[in-house]
Amino acid sequence: MTKVVSFWGKGGVGKTTCAASVAVKLASRGFHTLLISSDPTPSLSDILEISHCPSITKVQSTPLYVLELSEDNVVGMWKQKYGEEVYQVISAFLPVDKSIIDYIAGAPGIADEFCLSYIMELQKQEVYDYIVWDTAPAGGTLKLLKLEEQFYKHLTEAAKLYLSIKTVLRKIRRKEEANPLKILDSWKRLAEDTLAMLSSSLFKAHIVAIPEWLSVAQTERLVNELLAFKVNIGKVVVNQVVLDVPDHLGKKIIHQKYLSMLKEKLSFLDIITVPLQTYEIRGMDNLLAFSEHLVDKLEL
């Protein structure tokens, strides 16, 4: 079974670096690994020092594959997969034309939500040993997904009655159309399955933070939100920590303060400390070196 290893956190804390280094390390051990970024401005290719990867791309002769999901290509994939179904459902209730597909495709959260279901489909295909996912901030996506699942579950009886009457009239006219209730039911199952993936033993959400006040506050909120959706949380990675650097004694004291605060607030989670590096974390060799601070501690 394919394992999904994901990295969550606010911007600028090192999610992409952590994800890329773990994926490179797993591939170096012979695991077929797909590294995905759903950040609106992905930088995986920059860190790996390869060309932009808008589609799944193999990295040299390694078992590492990379995909950078920009919002544009995610929206395009969503329209190709669900556009016609969306039109069939909405047109069953309202007199609309197919321009409604473009309107809904641009709705906030659609791209992020599709990323979740897309990763679930990749996991089910079992082509890779690991999928390593560099996430965009996705708390709002989880709320949207839960709201959608509840909406499908509680579709009003009035709507069902309306569609039933339309079905009878359509049969009288002998005009066959897609059944929107069946489509809605399939969407409900998809939302339920996606939420179930997030809480399964094959999915891990590791939280990346830095030892600063804003990151501590946002990390605590993110953890609580993930727990509310029963996401399987792994470890908290506190990145860029100043340890024994004499020239940064003041920064070290500040970092220890916020590291202690994180340990107190999130005492129920394992916290990994990653020291501030003296080299630029770019390229396969440096990513492999950086991975030594993470891979074994994450218990992949």
Automatic annotation (TrEMBL):
Boundaries of every ArsA/GET3 Anion-transporting ATPase-like domain copy: 2-295
Superkingdom: Archaea
Pfam families recorded: ArsA_ATPase
Entry-linked InterPro entries: ArsA/GET3_ATPase-like, ATPase_ArsA/GET3, P-loop_NTPase
GO MF terms, alphabetically ordered: ATP binding; ATP hydrolysis activity
Gene3D superfamilies xrefs: P-loop containing nucleotide triphosphate hydrolases
Family recorded in the similarity comment: Belongs to the arsA ATPase family.
Protein name: ArsA/GET3 Anion-transporting ATPase-like domain-containing protein
Native source organism of the sequence: Thermoproteota archaeon
